[in-house]
Amino acid sequence: MAPALVHVIDDDPAMRDSVAFLLDTAGFDVRLYEAGTALLARLTRPLRGCILTDIRMPDLDGLALFRSLRSAGHTLPIVMMTGHGDVPLAVEAMKLGACDFIEKPFDGEALLRALQAALEQGGHNGSVDPILQDFMRRLATLSERERQVLDHLVTGGTSKEIGRRLRISPRTVEIYRAKVMAKTRAGSLQELVRWAVLAGFV
Fold first, then answer.
1. Stated pTM of the model
2. CATH numbers and ranges of domains, the chain
3. Where are the alpha helices (DSSP H) in 29-188?
4. Over 60: is that where the pLDDT of 126 sits?
5. Reduced 3-state DSSP string for 146-171
């Protein structure tokens, strides 16, 4: 059986090399591209594997690449790499159908897990996922204020910004954020956003 193929797109050569080394060591077949246009030009059928792309790139960014791939009929599962503060873009990508996003700098094991899950999903986010159903049950336990804080968290708001909007102190926002994380059992903001999008919360 051929190793799983990952198409990696990032305009940063050092990042491409780092990701390629990690994936190659983990047994993946890796193809590297310096831009989304390069991927589109070289992508041939039959397609296999998944795509790992940076969300912020010159010319064709990750979201534009995603739209171009889908409009051309390519349905490979896609994982987005995001920088700090790109949560709103990640949410938009997941609404379009991206499998996941991972925030830079990321842990190697977290990246491998995200790619393996994307390959297993085959690009389809099923609402019958028991983990998703469990998350939705936990969402239902949030208080009104906790849901308000969650709503702002998944759109990229900082504690200071959320505090201003809700007219509470940043410290109080942090307390509510901790309660949201505990009640939903999300291990990170990335995980919280991912499940909130899949659950249709945003």
1. 0.77
2. 5-121 (3.40.50.2300), 130-198 (1.10.10.10)
3. 36-42, 62-71, 87-96, 108-121, 130-139, 144-153, 159-166, 170-184
4. no
5. HHHHHHHHCCCCCHHHHHHHHCCCHH
